[in-house]
Specification:
Length: 1044
């Protein structure tokens, strides 16, 4: 009875009361309990869903459309793509993971007889016992325990086989051995806090790597004979790969980085030929013991590791050449990229000997924009869920120092097809970060769907997510969503969606075990965005799909952080011409993963098919854009007792998120405009922020005879310093043509605010003016409020102080080391996930860059109280809207006497837009006899700011890296090398007087639109201050400190 009353009440509220869904749920629940019923959560949730659906229809909300074609079966999805690394028996079992990998830098030096590893650059180059407790153990016990745990959890093991010429050794009593003993090699810049003699291999007096160390300090020699003894042990213990739990053997780990990660044992970069010889020698040895063993390689670390050998990567850090084709190792092998050359030679070996060495082309990949270990602010969360497109999308340009189309999985498949036919494809290490957050979970769910859709054969994530974390639950949505090991389907189906893939992705597959149709929907949009309304169409369904007319719904979201079964959805089907078509509607929350399961039965009886009715012709396409918008307040620094939305204090700082949705038509090179006006009856303009050059859809055009993929939503984040007087204010959101001549949207009911006076404060002197004069008003339509001056990009000032040696003059002697503090002051606007760059160049030739240091992931937003996720140090406001950060850096003047320019730059994320390029500071390097011949250096005229108590040196800083290696790009249709642009390289590790040459800088227009976080980046002009040649290796922080 109570449920019936709720339904009646729902109808009345829809028609008369227009209540919110939350209030409606509460009233229904109370009625149900008062009338003696039991509180039925599912019933209340179902009613609330109906209420939300009707609310959406009442405002004519445009839904996303997803079409699944059950007849377009693409390929079988390999179950081996759901693998992990270092999973326990319990987690592997709970995840129903098919593979468990033992890998990483430690595995490169595993001594199976001692059960010892050397940590390499991960942890002070120490050889330690695998247990960390200096205990005796049976030979191979560590690896055997890993295989046993994998088997217990139902997974096959992937084992890394060392190819290095040395493996770890231990002192008597199984005690730790350091490669860089401080007693033996002198003072070093760091040491193990628990082992004072274990240095980091960087000389304290010189700052250079310790060279000439004896590998036998912490290692013993290794070769195929040593490793064959271990393979024999594994084979006798666990049996043939075809039937045992150990099936896969990895050819070491990231060998092109040995010269860095294991420089104590292999200081010279590995050449192409050496890499080939090692793979052939060890691969053939493994197959001589067990011909059914599966070999994977070369296990390279990332994009540059695919293109260049270790020898060329090392060469690039110590030499200056203008083109990668001049790299010695590459030039000696016909200018071919490293991995394709390996594949071609392995194929030639197979043709000559009849023996296949590699069964899988295996590579590692980490996004290089900070997603894995960078800051986790709003910008990074959005980037994390966009950059999964680097795995597949030919139209996506990596928003990192790579600045190229990666399209990794299709590229790998094209390589094996051309150079080593019959080889399978494996992604044996990847990670997009934020295991503890929903952005990591949605990215992981997206990746698992992509791996299946793109036909990857094997994949293992680094590492196994911690049990219960959101990313862990993302795996379970594919492999064990119901606790009974029920899985996503096995046969990939074609899906088409109108949603922007940066916001929502979908994957579909048939499950062979029971014939069920499974559909995974990943909503990546961040709260507080509203739920996504989806109309799902299923076409060409098999006739054995469920006659019950319902679909199971399983969901994981940040509402509960557990996988929950929702109320089933009704499906109406129509049989026509021997096939079925049907549709259903569903809401999916922001940041959620939803699995729909349409069960199957053995037989069905359907009513007669209705007569075929010719379809009406499609209406002509109208290019005039139609928009809708919504705005939410993300945060505010207001300190008020009022909890009402839109109540602000005068002088506070508030951040807004505005979504602009193109409902129909095309928007090409247009303008998005947000404004704040005073009073509902007063058109006084208080604030304005505009973005120019916006395209919706992304391309800004639609091919002849086609319709655009709409609706399309772009998100814009902006802040407003509430400097106005108390009173009522309202926001206006507009869209206009590129010359402001035509307005398509003028939403003056987007958001209303009430500004209240702040509590009394002690008197303080007035702040100087912060903003430059406003530009003239652009031409506008007479029917709308005139836009005022535009606020597009942040503005900065800088101040430079020499603190060591502390002299007043900027004059140095050759070889002298100097330390500077650079203060960067944000005068207006804000910076999210930006870059601060320091460079030294030859004053007489500005193209000669001698030094560079930069900091990534910088957030500068007025009032730190509104930005809880800012990195250390927390910005300190020195004026009403100014934020100051201090950066400490050092330079050794190992250059010829002369004048040099010190440059400070500030850039947006990915180096795409330059906001500041300050060349006003210079210094002189003078020899003993030339003091009078040099012009005195100029100093900045800006007042010096006192340094902050903290300076910002984040752990992912890479010293002195100048210009990035940019690999040869490929035309997917031809797979032929396309000559890359001109390159220049300079030392990664220290300054050099041999300066590179490169074209003069070309900067993007700083008045241009900054790319919305929810939109793919436009290609930008080349910027001379470049990101690093090599970011910090992912391995550098993947391994935890050993137990003590």
């Amino acid at each position: 009875m109570s449920l019936a009353l709720c339904k009646i009440y729902m109808t009345l509220s829809l028609e008369k009361l227009q209540m919110s869904a939350l209030r409606y749920v509460m009233i229904c629940a109370m009625l149900h309990i008062i009338l003696g019923g039991v509180y039925d959560v599912k019933a209340v949730k179902h009613i609330a869903a109906i209420r939300r659906l009707d609310e959406a229809n009442s405002i004519n909300e445009m839904p996303y459309s997803i079409v699944v074609n059950a007849a377009a079966r693409q390929h079988v999805i390999s179950s081996l793509i759901y693998g992990v690394a270092f999973g326990t028996a319990e987690t592997v079992s709970d995840l129903n993971a098919p593979l468990n990998r033992l890998g990483g830098n430690l595995a490169s030096t595993y001594n199976w007889e001692l059960n010892a590893n050397n940590h390499g650059s991960d942890w002070y180059f120490e050889s330690t016992h695998t247990t960390g407790q200096n205990l005796a153990s049976a030979p191979g016990a560590y690896a055997d325990a890993f295989i046993s745990g994998s088997k217990e959890g139902g997974a096959a093991a992937l084992m890394t086989i060392p190819l290095l010429p040395y493996i770890a050794n231990l002192r008597p009593g199984y005690e730790t051995l350091p490669s860089f003993s401080i007693q033996k090699y002198g003072p070093q810049t760091g040491h193990d806090p628990w082992h004072s003699d274990a240095g980091n291999g960087v000389s304290l007096p010189t700052g250079d790597f310790v060279s000439g160390n004896n590998p036998l300090d912490a290692y013993v020699p290794s070769n195929t004979t040593v490793q064959k003894a271990w393979i024999d042990h594994l084979h006798s213990t666990w049996g043939n790969a075809s039937s045992g739990p150990l099936k896969y053997f990895l050819m070491d780990n990231e060998p092109s980085l040995w010269y860095h990660s294991h420089r104590d044992a292999y200081p010279k970069g590995l050449t192409m030929q050496d890499a080939l010889d090692l793979i052939i020698d060890y691969g053939s040895m493994i197959k001589s013991v067990d011909p059914t063993a599966q070999a994977l390689g070369p296990e390279e670390w990332g994009w540059l590791g695919y293109m260049y050998s270790g020898a060329d990567q090392q060469f690039a850090q110590t030499n200056t050449y203008n083109h990668p084709n001049n790299f010695p190792d590459r030039a000696a092998h016909g200018g071919m990229d490293y991995v394709p050359w390996l594949l071609s030679q392995l194929y030639a070996y197979e043709q000559n000997t009849g023996q296949r060495i590699l069964d899988y082309l295996s590579l590692h990949y980490y996004p290089q924009g900070g997603e894995f270990q960078g800051s986790n602010n709003l910008t990074m969360k959005l980037l994390r869920n966009r950059s999964t497109r680097e795995l597949w999308d030919p139209d996506y340009i990596s928003q990192s120092y790579l600045n190229t189309t990666v399209m990794l999985l299709p590229l790998m498949k094209s390589w094996v097809e051309q150079y080593y036919p019959g080889t399978k494809v494996a992604l044996t290490e990847y990670n997009w970060g934020d295991d503890e957050g929903m952005s990591g979970a949605t990215a992981q769910a997206d990746i698992l769907g992509i791996l299946g859709r793109e036909g990857v054969d094997v994949a293992t994530r680094w590492e196994c997510p911690a049990s219960g974390t959101p990313t862990y639950q993302a795996f379970k949505m594919y492999r064990n969503y119901d606790g009974s090991n029920s899985t996503f389907g096995d046969v990939s189906l074609s899906t088409n969606s109108t949603a922007n893939v940066d916001d929502l992705s979908s994957f579909a597959a048939l499950r062979l075990s029971d014939g069920a149709l499974t559909i995974m929907v990943v909503n990546k949009v961040l709260p507080p965005s509203s739920d996504a309304y989806i109309e799902l169409s299923l076409i060409d369904l098999p006739l054995n799909l469920s006659c019950t007319g319902s679909s199971e719904v399983w969901m994981f979201s940040n509402a509960s952080f557990v996988i929950e079964r929702q109320a089933d959805l009704s499906i109406e089907r129509v049989e026509a011409n021997g096939s079925l078509s049907s549709s259903l509607q569903i809401y999916v929350p922001a940041q959620s993963i939803t699995l729909l399961v349409v069960p199957a039965l053995s037989s069905c009886h359907w009513p007669p098919s209705p007569p075929n009715i010719p379809s009406a012709p499609a209406p002509p396409f109208n290019p005039t854009p139609v928009f809708k918008s919504n705005t939410v307040m993300l945060n505010s620094s207001s300190t008020t007792d009022s909890t009402a939305a839109g109540v602000l204090l005068s002088g506070s700082n508030v951040t807004f998120l505005t979504n602009i949705t193109l409902v129909s038509g095309i928007f090409s090179h247009g303008i998005i405009d947000v404004e704040v006006h005073e009073g509902l009856n007063n058109n006084s303009l208080i604030y304005q922020h505009s973005w120019a050059g916006v395209n919706l859809p992304e391309s800004g055009f639609v091919p002849m005879g086609q319709y655009p993929q709409i609706p399309v939503t772009a998100t814009f984040i902006w802040d407003w310093v509430v400097t106005s007087t108390p009173g009522s204010y309202y926001m206006v959101v507009g869209t206009a043509s590129g010359d402001w001549s035509v307005f398509y949207l003028w939403n003056s009911s987007s958001f209303s605010m009430q500004v209240e006076a702040p509590p009394p404060q002690p008197p303080f002197p007035p702040s100087p003016p912060q903003h430059p004069p406003q530009p003239p008003l652009p031409p506008i339509s007479p029917s709308v409020v005139p836009p005022a001056g535009l606020v597009v990009a942040p503005t900065f000032s800088t101040a430079l102080t020499m603190v060591v040696p502390g002299e007043d003059t900027m004059v140095l002697s050759p070889g002298e080391t100097v330390t500077f503090i650079t203060n960067v002051t944000l005068l207006h606007g804000f910076l999210l996930n930006g870059v601060v760059d320091m460079e030294i160049r030859n004053a007489g030739n500005s193209s000669q860059q001698l030094y560079q240091r930069y900091w990534l992931g910088i957030d500068m937003v007025p009032d730190s109280a509104t930005n809880s996720g800012l990195p250390s140090p927390v910005p300190q406001a020195t004026q009403a809207s100014a934020v100051v950060l201090s950066f400490s850096w050092s330079w050794n003047a190992s250059v010829s006497p002369g004048n040099y320019t010190i440059i400070t730059g500030v850039f947006s994320s990915g180096w795409s837009t330059c906001y500041l390029w300050d060349t006003s500071s210079t210094l002189s390097v003078q020899g003993a006899d030339d003091e009078s011949s040099l012009e005195p250096p100029s100093r900045q005229t800006l007042a010096l700011q006192p340094p902050l108590s903290k300076t910002y040196s984040p752990p992912h800083y890479v010293s002195s890296s100048v210009l990035p290696l940019q690999p040869t790009t490929y035309d997917p249709s031809l797979l032929a090398p396309i000559p890359p642009p001109t390159y220049s390289l300079q030392s990664t590790w220290r300054s050099t007087s041999a300066a590179p040459s490169y074209p003069p800088p070309v900067y993007p227009n700083t008045d241009d639109v900054r790319d919305s976080p929810n939109r793919s980046p436009r290609p930008h002009a080349t910027i001379t201050p470049h990101p690093p040649l090599y970011p910090a290796s992912p391995e550098a922080t993947r391994m935890a400190a050993p137990s003590k």
